[in-house]
Amino acid sequence: MRTPPLASASTVSRPSCKPMMGAVIASVAGCLYAAKMTAISPESFTFNQSLLILLGVVLGGMGRIPGVVLGAVLVALLPEVLRGAGTYRPLVTAVALLAIMLFRPNGLWPDKRV
């Protein structure tokens, strides 16, 4: 069955490189983690670690890879920067992350389409 070129071009979506790039970055990170830990088991990934990874993705902006990297750096460095806060460090970290979510609901580096 033959279709006009314009009709077929409008219905077929072109594959994007973004999901592939995210998969490449995730696989390289997994390889580096496995090489550092020398053994991987399901017990290696706790609920808190999974929550921090999800928080980094949401804070950075789910539509852009640089946003995810920025969110991950923020989630990793914010508790270390606030080390001088002593026992109030978790509270200050939580308030800072909530403020980012309130004032930047699409993430720190949102997708241009949003």
What does this structure look like?
This protein is mostly helical. Helix content is 64%, strand content 0%. The two termini are 38 Å apart.
Write the layout of secondary structure elements.
Blueprint: H1 5-11, H2 18-37, H3 47-60, H4 65-81, H5 89-103
Concise structural overview:
With 114 residues, the chain is mainly α. The protein is built from five helices and no strands.
Distance between the termini: 38 Å
- Let me know the largest β-sheet: none
The share of residues in extended strands comes to under 5%
Order of helices and strands: HHHHH
Uncertain stretches: none
- Count of extended strands: 0
What is the radius of gyration? 19 Å
Q: With helices defined by DSSP (H or I, 4 residues minimum), what is the helix count? A: 5
Average pLDDT score = 78
Helical coverage, percent range: 55-70%
The best one-word shape is flat
SS-based class: mainly alpha
Keywords for this structure?
flat; 5 helices; 114 residues; mainly alpha
